[in-house]
From TrEMBL:
InterPro entries found in the cross-reference section: LysR_HTH_N, LysR_subst-bd, WH-like_DNA-bd_sf, WH_DNA-bd_sf
Name this protein carries in UniProt: LysR family transcriptional regulator
Organism encoding this protein: Salicibibacter halophilus
Keyword terms of this UniProt record: DNA-binding, Transcription, Transcription regulation
Pfam families xref list: HTH_1 (PF00126), LysR_substrate (PF03466)
Matching Gene3D superfamilies: 3.40.190.290, Winged helix-like DNA-binding domain superfamily/Winged helix DNA-binding domain
Domain HTH lysR-type: 14-71
MF terms in GO: DNA-binding transcription factor activity; transcription cis-regulatory region binding
Matches recorded under PROSITE patterns: HTH_LYSR (PS50931)
Domain of life assignment: Bacteria
Family membership noted in the UniProt record: Belongs to the LysR transcriptional regulatory family.
Length: 310
């Protein structure tokens, strides 16, 4: 029997239990041990193997005493059996893929874990969605991912370049704020001035980003500062909470877990730096409807959960 006729027989006449039984017998080299492993009777194992041999018109095993060995044809059939079981498993997953489409949602850096977590809870309530969250390096890389179809929906600070296949909508401003340790003397002031940062330690994350270049332009006149750049928003908040320095981050980056440990203040020159939130997604009937629901949940969260200055 050649490979093509063998594969044809497999796909039309065999079942998963027969294939799994064949591989188990080959592994244990014993019908009785295979029966124990599969939690079936030995006659059931014998019947399944006999059915396979009848379908294929070959012998799969030889018996030498108490030992069972694969025949030459049995060895050849091993790879077919393993592959077909994989295909069966994949086919079972198709219904879940159809019922629960994978939606990749991308965020530019600077959103707090609590914001993203609460947002995902809201998205989950929509139902029948499999969500994958991606944090992009910056807004530019996220926009490129949407254009290439690698991410379905992104939330970024830059508007998408003019592309007929991409929908881009402005949501709201995500103003920059100053984050202070709760016991810092500057918390006694409701609004800060740039000179208040003189001789302070200023914390940033990803200082080489486009946003931080704008911030640094405003900080040029601040004197005798120590600069510490960290890799992510969470690290910055922990550093501020531990009185290491003063942070500057977007307001949506304030995680509610730190509400008792940090205070929020504004510096007009910093808060006036443009930092918009745009949603971008590909024109797709499956994505469009879901995008509208996600946008609504984000706007609702933005106006109900963001901590105020205290």
């Amino acid at each position: 029997m050649n490979a093509f006729s063998l594969l044809n027989e497999v796909t039309t006449n065999m079942n998963e239990s027969q294939l799994q039984t064949f591989l188990t017998v080959a592994d244990y080299k014993s019908y009785s041990k295979a029966a124990d492993a599969l939690v079936v009777t030995q006659p059931t194992v014998t019947s399944r193997i006999k059915a396979l041999e009848d379908i294929l018109e070959i012998e799969l095993f030889n018996r030498f005493g108490h030992e069972i060995y694969l025949t030459k044809e049995g060895h050849m059939f091993m790879d077919y059996a393993k592959n077909i079981l994989l295909y069966i498993q994949y086919s079972k997953e198709i219904q879940h893929i159809v019922k629960e489409p994978v939606i990749k949602v991308g965020f530019s850096p600077g959103y707090s874990y609590s914001f993203i977590t609460e947002l995902l809870k809201t998205i989950k309530s929509i139902g029948a969605i499999d969500i994958q969250v991606v944090e992009g390096y910056d807004s530019v890389s996220l926009s490129e991912s949407v254009i290439l179809g690698e991410i379905d929906i992104i939330f970024a600070r830059e508007n998408s370049p003019n592309n007929p296949d991409i929908i881009s909508e402005y949501l709201f401003d995500n103003n920059l704020v100053v984050v202070l340790p709760s016991n810092h003397y500057l918390t006694q002031k409701q609004t800060l001035l740039l000179e208040d940062l003189n001789e302070e330690t200023i914390l940033s994350f990803r200082r080489n980003s486009a946003l931080w270049k704008l911030i640094d332009q405003q900080l040029i006149g601040v004197k005798n500062v120590t600069r510490i750049d960290v890799d992510n928003n969470e690290m910055l908040l922990k550093a501020v909470a531990n009185d290491i320095g003063i942070g500057i981050i977007p307001k949506l980056g304030i995680d509610e877990r730190y509400n008792a440990e940090v205070k929020i203040r504004q510096i007009n020159e910093i808060s006036s730096i443009p930092n918009h939130v745009y949603v971008q997604y590909r024109k797709n009937s499956r994505i469009n409807q879901l995008a509208k629901k996600i946008i609504y949940s984000i706007i609702n969260h933005k106006y109900s959960e963001i901590p105020e200055e205290n």
